[in-house]
């Protein structure tokens, strides 16, 4: 069947081959992967040897080459998210990474350790929540893009027709993609967030869906991937689509977010907020134009909402962004700067209405996509809001949820779900679903990029800022600080390996994982901890005189504080930096 992949699979394993059997009704196909030659062929069920060890699987994620050789990655558990126009959407919840090799005796001790580290990286990416798929529906495209396709497009396999920006296992499926006859075994997987709810307003039932699609171009973690690359791909680029399905009519509203599209970096250095650095020699206008040329082609008009601070360390980025928009002088791009923190200080979050009022007319002009039960397109969305803050997470998500609610209000009134003059905010049951879904979306996007849940979700969930929310924001900020400084190098390497930005070469005599650390990297933190501990011990075990105790406390206190400032001064030497991809590729 065109445009689908097999839903029910069995994996049969022998010492020589993997046999992936299609178990859908009427299917006789078997994908055979030779564990020695790595050749992939298509056969039939009678070729499966009875001696094979059999287990059910729910999809092939792809293959990857590590030091020990090739590995097959499969989905072993899944969870049903819901049904989408009679198409089931699944979340992949567990995976298995299977070696082609039957033994590791051919590896040296260093190779064994490297292979173990690479496997840990792959498993780390797979352990980040948010992998979704459907065997019958193309999750990578918006409703509007799918409505504007040819019959030939509809006949293509899910892998061929997918928007490659959002296929996170595209690199892993490269061997299968080269053989069209096995495409029904190739399952495109989305990374991001999907939620579906059956809702009721005024006794009228409709489906409400929220999908966030994370781009695999310039993907990475918070401080190691900022700005754009030479192709114009922005860091942390996410396309978010809100969909309503009522009595056969379908409506959708699409927004995007992405890092400020300039060449800039913000490398961790143990400071709470490292200073952003704008590249002084790069051709910013060229990359900027590449970015927006592609955005205009895909989405139409662009309304930029820049939420960064207009003073302090964020100010130069805001000014540079505004200057680039003016230099480009495109009638398809409008720029709005809104200093979120200044406008909403002292918990005055009601002032967000200033921004919503400012863009209301623009939002009406952009409109939304609507198709009637007969499949006729009633309206098209003419462009998108492209929102950003520094991380494109917390402030951005708050604004996107408010813009999406305004669009939803218009859609539900047009569809006859809401009465004239009736406000969506007054529908308590739906409001709870709506706010929690957008807060969950914020948390998912934040965990995938920054390593923790989002900040400011108390406002998204309740519509107001709370003291408990501030405390939780403080806790998440501390966790972010630790991860950004001491574990994000590994996280960045894991993503680069998974997406194919780095390829393992077992013949390479120099392992990038065996770069020796400077002695001070290990010694100074230990000295600081010992000195601080001795300071506390001296206080707890006072000597015969306070003079003696004070002398010891001062000695160890000065030692610990001095060591701390030495570490802080040399901060970049103590953070966990990526080791797999060259600096120019992630700056």
Keywords:
587 residues, alpha+beta, 13-stranded mixed β-sheet, 20 strands, globular, disordered C terminus
Describe this structure in words.
It contains 17 helices and 20 strands. The protein has helices at residues 109-126, 143-147, 151-155, 158-161, 174-177, 284-299, 315-328, 340-343, 352-366, 394-415, 428-449, 457-462, 467-486, 488-499, 519-540, 546-569, 583-586, and strands at 9-13, 17-22, 29-34, 40-44, 53-57, 59-66, 69-84, 87-99, 131-133, 190-201, 204-214, 238-246, 249-257, 264-265, 277-278, 301-306, 333-337, 369-371, 377-379, 383-388. The longest helix has 24 residues, at 546-569. Helix 9 (352-366) crosses helix 10, helix 10 (394-415) packs antiparallel against helix 11 (428-449) and helix 15 packs antiparallel against helix 16 (546-569). The model is unreliable at 583-587 (pLDDT under 50). The protein has 587 residues and is α+β, with helices and mostly antiparallel strands.
Topology:
Elements: E1 9-13, E2 17-22, E3 29-34, E4 40-44, E5 53-57, E6 59-66, E7 69-84, E8 87-99, H1 109-126, E9 131-133, H2 143-147, H3 151-155, H4 158-161, H5 174-177, E10 190-201, E11 204-214, E12 238-246, E13 249-257, E14 264-265, E15 277-278, H6 284-299, E16 301-306, H7 315-328, E17 333-337, H8 340-343, H9 352-366, E18 369-371, E19 377-379, E20 383-388, H10 394-415, H11 428-449, H12 457-462, H13 467-486, H14 488-499, H15 519-540, H16 546-569, H17 583-586
Helix pairs in contact: 1-14, 9-10, 10-11, 15-16
């Amino acid at each position: 069947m065109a445009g689908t992949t097999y839903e029910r699979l069995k994996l049969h394993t022998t010492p020589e081959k993997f046999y992936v059997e299609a178990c859908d009704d009427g299917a006789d196909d078997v994908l055979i992967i030779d564990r020695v030659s790595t050749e992939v062929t298509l056969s039939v069920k009678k070729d499966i040897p009875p001696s094979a060890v059999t287990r059910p699987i729910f999809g092939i994620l792809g293959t990857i080459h590590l030091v020990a050789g090739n590995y097959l990655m499969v989905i072993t558990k899944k969870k049903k998210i819901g049904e989408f126009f009679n198409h089931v959407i699944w979340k992949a919840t567990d995976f298995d990474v299977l070696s082609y090799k039957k033994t590791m005796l051919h590896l040296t001790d260093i190779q064994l350790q490297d292979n173990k580290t690479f496997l840990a990286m792959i498993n780390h990416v797979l352990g980040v929540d948010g992998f979704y798929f459907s065997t019958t529906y193309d999750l990578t495209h918006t409703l509007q893009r799918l409505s504007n396709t040819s019959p030939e497009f509809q006949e293509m396999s899910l892998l061929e027709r997918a928007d490659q920006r959002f296929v996170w296992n595209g690199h892993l499926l490269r061997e299968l993609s080269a053989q069209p006859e096995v495409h029904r075994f190739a399952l495109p997987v989305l990374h991001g967030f999907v939620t579906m709810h059956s809702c009721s307003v005024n006794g009228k039932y409709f489906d409400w869906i929220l999908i966030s699609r994370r781009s695999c171009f310039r993907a990475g973690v918070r401080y190691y991937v900022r700005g754009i690359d030479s192709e114009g791909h922005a860091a942390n680029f996410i396309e978010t689509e809100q969909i309503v399905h009522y009595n056969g009519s379908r409506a959708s509203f699409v927004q995007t977010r992405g890092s400020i599209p300039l060449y800039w970096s913000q490398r961790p250095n143990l400071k709470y907020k490292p200073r952003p650095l704008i590249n002084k020699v790069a051709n910013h206008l060229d990359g900027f134009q590449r970015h927006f040329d592609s955005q205009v082609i895909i989405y139409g008009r662009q309304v930029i909402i820049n939420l960064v601070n207009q003073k302090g360390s964020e100010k130069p980025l805001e000014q540079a962004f505004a200057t680039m928009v003016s230099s480009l002088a495109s009638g398809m791009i409008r720029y709005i700067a809104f200093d979120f923190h200044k406008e909403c200080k002292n918990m005055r979050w009601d002032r967000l209405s200033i921004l919503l009022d400012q863009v209301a007319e623009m939002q009406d002009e952009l409109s939304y996509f609507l198709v009637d039960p007969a499949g006729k397109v009633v309206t098209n969305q003419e462009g998108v809001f492209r929102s950003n803050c520094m991380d494109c997470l917390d402030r951005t998500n708050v604004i996107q949820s408010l813009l999406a609610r305004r669009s939803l209000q218009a859609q539900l009134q047009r569809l006859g779900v809401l009465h004239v003059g009736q406000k969506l905010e007054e529908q308590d049951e739906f409001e709870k679903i709506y706010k929690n879904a957008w807060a969950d979306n914020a948390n998912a996007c934040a965990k995938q990029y920054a390593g923790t849940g989002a900040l400011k979700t108390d406002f998204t969930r309740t519509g107001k800022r709370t003291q408990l929310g501030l405390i939780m924001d403080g806790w998440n900020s501390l966790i972010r600080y630790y991860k950004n400084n001491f574990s994000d190098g590994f996280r960045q390497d894991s993503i680069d390996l998974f997406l194919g930005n780095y390829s393992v070469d077992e013949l390479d005599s120099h392992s990038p994982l065996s770069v020796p650390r400077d002695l001070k990297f290990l010694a100074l933190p230990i000295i600081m901890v010992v000195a601080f501990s001795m300071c506390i011990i001296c206080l707890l075990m006072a000597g015969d005189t306070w003079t003696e105790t004070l002398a010891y406390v001062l000695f160890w206190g000065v030692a610990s504080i001095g060591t701390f400032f030495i570490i802080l001064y040399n901060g970049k030497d103590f953070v966990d930096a990526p080791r797999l991809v060259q600096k120019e590729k992630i700056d």
